[in-house]
Amino acid sequence: MEFLLGGASSMCAVLFTNPLDVLKTRQQLEGELIAKQNLTKRSYRGIRQSFLTVVRTDGLRGLQKGLPAALLFQFSMNSIRLGTYQTVDNLGWTKCANHPSLTPLLSVFWGGCAGLVSATASCPFYVVKIQLQADTSGSYTARFQHHHSGTVSAFVNIYRQSGVRGLFRGYPASVARLVVGSAAEMASFSVCKQFFLRYQVFQESIVLTALASSTVAGFFTSVLMSPCDVVTTRMTNQAVSANGKGLLYTNIFDCFLKIYRSEGIHGYYKGFVPMYLRVAPHTMLNLTFWEFFKGLHEQWRI
């Protein structure tokens, strides 16, 4: 049940946050491997311009590009991630009664482990989601677009071109992204939840506690995960050769190095604003729905 509740909560959250994910993907791919001073024309500068560009080129429906794949990704990723973490927490492995100072480290460790497992299960859906979100009918500065007609078509095209390996393109970067993000999110959420529950107003409201705790967790997640997120997007969307090998990046280290040499530190934080505006409310909605669903489950079980 823990796995089902985790997946259901994330699917509810992504319905609200997918448009920001589209803006983030477009910003991360704009000016790929081009120095900032040489990027004279930008279609996705800032939230407002990015929003208007998407609406002008793809209509309002463009803000929900890749939504079916995003729903599948969130369910496969968070059902395992949150379910695994909740199971471990129920077993008492995230706390150390004899040494309370070790509790945050245990939360980081098990959050990272949960992220590792979930990255493996959700990677194919993430690949499809990114490629669909990057595609546009208007002029676009990304180096490559895959032009899939839909979610099913994307899975078929990727498999025909590169086999199963194509569905796990950028897997090491995806693992790094989710391990860092999950460790930061779950650890900070757990610590903040314990802190807020010291106060009466939070003890009386599960939703208020989840909202406050997940707001802080979203901030730490955004700051720490952004470099890995950019690298994952770049590796996932890059063009490939006839034998399925990436034409821009050979591996995660090559991608990190090329971004730094071409775009500097700034390149690792492209799309940071829409990412934060997405991650913070997504974390807030996801963990709030999670706490709410767990509360309902406890009531019904009783």
TrEMBL record:
Source organism of this protein record: Anopheles melas
Membrane topology: Multi-pass membrane protein
Family matches, as SUPFAM superfamilies: Mitochondrial carrier
One GO cellular component term: mitochondrial inner membrane
A Pfam entry, by short name: Mito_carr
Protein name according to UniProt: Mitochondrial carrier protein
Family membership: Belongs to the mitochondrial carrier (TC 2.A.29) family.
Keywords: Membrane, Mitochondrion, Mitochondrion inner membrane, Repeat, Transmembrane, Transmembrane helix, Transport
Solcar repeat feature ranges: 1-91, 102-195, 205-296
Annotated signal peptide: none
Gene3D superfamilies referenced in this protein's UniProt entry, alphabetically: Mitochondrial carrier domain
Annotated transmembrane regions: none
Subcellular locations according to the entry: Mitochondrion inner membrane
